[in-house]
Design goal:
Elements lengths: L2 H5 L20 H22 L1 E10 L2 E8 L2 E8 L2 H11 L3 E5 L26 H11 L7 E2 H7 L6 H9 L12 E2 L12 H10 L9
Parallel strand pairs: 1-4, 5-6
Antiparallel strand pairs: 1-2, 2-3
Helix pairs in contact: 5-6
Length: about 210
């Protein structure tokens, strides 16, 4: 049986209806109906299983935040100054989810970037190592920082400072998973998914002394 003939529109849906050469013994109109039925059923199953995520925007002194929530908790918190760009980032990170604006919501952040309430349940999506790093970041008290190497050691992976930096870059939950508190050992601010100016601003809000660049 030819797999190509089995799946393509205009061909038979069952192998027993294929004539030699891959031609269908089913009349063309009936064949098209069968294909539309199969495709429609597949689309229905996809829509039924599609995850629903709601999102809203919050104003900050330095810009704005986009907060996205799934059934399991907050799945994303982005920082920026362009609401359209933030929403596009959300679509890219959750391409198979149904996204809808949330009208009635409890603010997650204060205008100074600090959490407005105890940290709500989070929907952490990543590898086992990434989740270890994110949990380690959550254990850093406000007003303190750790080097990438120190965070690597706390996860039981000494020497994995670069991988810690990559896990910080993959973090979708700014502030709630405080990757802005992770700094390079040789000075400077290091990278930050939403830009170095956001990282510096958050640290200033937490009264962390400004670091000199090595």
């Amino acid at each position: 049986m030819h797999r190509k003939a089995f799946y393509e529109p205009g061909n038979a849906v069952g192998g027993s209806s294929l004539l030699p050469g891959g031609k269908s013994s089913i009349p063309r109109k009936k064949n098209q109906f069968l294909w539309k039925y199969v495709a429609g059923f597949s689309y229905y199953r996809t829509m039924k299983s599609m995850e629903s995520i709601t999102w809203h925007l919050e104003s900050l002194n330095n810009g704005c935040a986009l907060v996205a929530t799934s059934e399991r908790g907050i799945a994303a918190l982005y920082l920026g100054n362009d609401e359209t760009r933030l929403l596009e980032d959300l679509r890219q990170d959750f391409p198979h989810s149904s996204l809808a604006p949330e009208k009635n919501f409890q603010p997650v952040l204060n205008s100074d970037g600090r959490p407005a309430m105890p940290v709500p349940p989070l929907d952490l999506r990543g590898t086992e190592f990434q989740r270890k790093v994110w949990h380690a970041l959550q254990s850093i008290p406000e007003g303190q920082t750790r080097t990438y190497g120190e965070i690597a050691a706390s996860t039981g992976n000494p020497g994995a400072a670069r991988a810690v930096g990559q896990a910080c870059g993959a973090n979708r939950l700014a502030v709630l998973v405080p990757c802005h508190r992770a700094l390079p050992a040789n000075g400077g601010m290091g990278g930050f998914r939403w830009g170095a100016h956001w990282k510096e601003w958050l640290l200033q809000m937490e009264a962390v002394p400004r670091r000199k660049t090595a």
